[in-house]
Design brief:
By secondary structure, this protein is α+β, with helices and mostly antiparallel strands. Helices cover 24% and strands 25% of the residues. A seven-stranded mixed beta sheet has the order 13-12-11-14-10-15-16, with helices on both faces. The structure holds adenosine-5'-triphosphate. ATP binds at residues 96, 136, 203-208.
Length: 505
């Protein structure tokens, strides 16, 4: 093992982000073609920006050095209550500026001096970045920085106590494992890099930690695979999905995960409750495809994966976590902010000596989101899918005949009539039964996934190309009008319906 999970790294220059840069830029030419089918439908004008970001990303290895954690208090503290206008904040080393952008207007921010990063991605000096209303984030500096803000915030304050050192220590251990995997013969088990799963209750900072680990790894030239199993607040595509995508560059702090080639499976609901078995089936499907992909690509196998999970950790939620750990063969379990979950997992996984269960502190900056905020966030993710994070995509309103589309639901309906069952047995709904749906007025505003399946019986095991939202149904002319991310025919005729709906406001 290349270091301990909670110990400090003695030589950050060996593990800092630029230490591996050259060796990895040599392998970069072999572009990762991880996923056979991409989200064709997804608008894709984020690439250029990510590349520019990369040009500007120059974290030096020293910027990731760490040691003690006692830090002098920051010299500027803006209190809650929505300061506005242009102002500067001086961040001391290993401190962070926590910001909730005003719900009504965007915030501009730039680095005037020093270096700082947002959730693992370094911010280019002097360039203004614009953050959308309501966004919650932190600007962290390893060595100190002066930040300028322009616009209103709901709150902004600096914090000198963060768990960042323990997080970067985890990164360093993962880095060691990736290097060891890369140096191992490709046909040996040792060539598999870390498969990290981040677990914890809702609002413990799972997505944020996943993002940091991915961005730090990408910064060093790895292309780790991000697997997002959080169907409520997923960050790869719209809610109701599980998805995976390679991360080739540090994640853009404003635009998020690039939608270049995600592998997406549609559950259709913002929590697994309505169809727990389907959730398991989809996680298994996704795991199998990734397994195949890793088998043929030593580079992505060595880089490994970071898996984000749901905050549902009790009862069935806990079972689903165990199922995901098993299906994706996770070998590092990072438990955020919950002692009970940590000891339960440690206990149940002690029979697997190759699995490390590591407890990490939750950041005090993580914002708790109530039900209505989560609902809003889901709505915003769907809007973002069609219109882009900066409202710069152009979705299209298209029309189709009823007969052109075949819409299915997964689950529901009795599996067999009572008469066909053994005496005393109750008919149960088959969770993976496909049910053909007749177009009705209830489908107004429904968000449907477009399946890559060629035949109905392939629908459950197929990934999806993208999504449409039904905006109008004309029963007289038997026509449906829908919003799609692009013009032209749908990439498949089979559509999957769940409970997701979106009303453009
Ligand atoms: N250090 C921080 N400072 C300010 N905001 C933060 C910080 N860390 C996380 N946040 C914000 O807190 C919110 C919750 O964090 P995050 O999404 O990582 O939690 P989560 O455990 O994944 O939640 P869930 O399980 O509900 O999806 C997000 O809006 C995130 O941007």
């Amino acid at each position: 093992m290349a270091g301990s999970w909670n110990g400090l790294i003695s030589d950050p220059h060996q593990t800092g982000p630029s230490a591996l840069r050259n060796s990895h830029s040599q392998v970069k030419a072999r572009t990762l073609k991880i996923l056979s089918k991409s989200l064709l439908f997804a608008p894709n004008n984020q690439t250029q920006r990510s590349k520019e970001q990369k040009k500007n990303c120059t974290i030096k290895s020293s910027a990731m050095a760490f040691g003690g954690s006692a830090v002098a208090p920051p010299s500027a503290v803006a209190g809650a209550g929505g300061p506005s206008g242009t102002r500067q904040v001086k961040l001391e080393r290993e401190c962070e500026l926590r910001i909730e952008v005003s719900p009504d207007s965007p915030l501009r921010l730039r680095i005037l001096a020093g270096t700082a990063e947002i959730f693992g991605t370094e911010i280019a000096p002097e360039i203004w970045l614009s953050f959308p209303p309501g966004l919650k984030f932190a600007v962290f500096s390893w060595y100190g920085a002066t930040i300028e803000m322009d616009g209103a915030t709901e709150t902004d304050y600096t914090a000198d106590e963060t768990p960042m050192i323990s997080y970067v220590n985890v990164h360093a251990v993962l880095e060691g494992r990736r290097n060891r995997a890369k140096a191992s013969p490709t046909d040996s088990d040792l060539s598999q890099g870390p498969r990290v799963i981040v677990v914890g209750p809702t609002d413990s900072g799972k997505s944020t930690l996943s993002r940091m680990l991915l961005s730090w790894a990408a910064k060093q030239g790895w292309k780790p695979t991000f697997v997002d199993l959080d169907i409520g607040q997923g960050s790869i595509t719209i809610p109701g999905c599980i998805a995976a995508t390679p991360i080739e560059l540090p994640i853009d702090p404003v635009e998020g995960i690039p939608l270049e080639m995600p592998l997406v499976y549609f559950h259709g609901h913002p929590n697994p409750g309505p169809n727990v078995d389907l959730y398991k089936v989809l996680v298994k499907e996704l795991a199998q495809i990734l397994e195949r992909q890793f088998a043929g690509n030593a580079e992505s196998r060595a880089a490994g994966m970071v898996i984000n999970t749901m905050g549902w950790i009790e009862n069935v939620g806990y079972e689903l976590l165990l199922h995901s750990i098993d299906a994706l063969k996770a070998n590092v379990v990072l438990v955020l902010g919950q002692e009970k979950l940590f000891s339960m997992l440690k206990d149940v996984l002690k029979s697997k000596p190759n699995v490390d269960v590591v407890k990490l502190q939750k950041s005090g900056g993580v914002v708790t989101r109530l039900g209505n905020v989560r609902k809003k966030a889901r709505h915003y993710r769907i809007k973002e899918y069609f219109y882009g994070p900066s409202n710069d995509f152009s979705p299209h309103s298209n029309t189709a005949n009823f007969s052109d589309l075949s819409i299915y639901r997964v689950g529901g309906g009795p599996q067999a009539p009572r008469s066909a069952l053994p005496i005393g047995a109750e008919p149960a709904a088959d969770p993976t039964r496909l049910v053909h749906v007749t177009i009705s007025k209830d489908m107004h505003h429904a968000v449907l996934a477009v399946s890559y399946a060629k035949e109905p019986d392939q629908i459950i095991s197929s990934n999806v190309a993208g999504f449409i939202c039904i905006t109008e149904i004309d029963f007289d002319r038997k026509k449906i009008t829908y919003l799609a991310p692009s013009v032209g025919e749908l990439p498949g005729r089979f559509l999957i319906m769940g409970s997701l709906a979106w009303l453009e406001t």
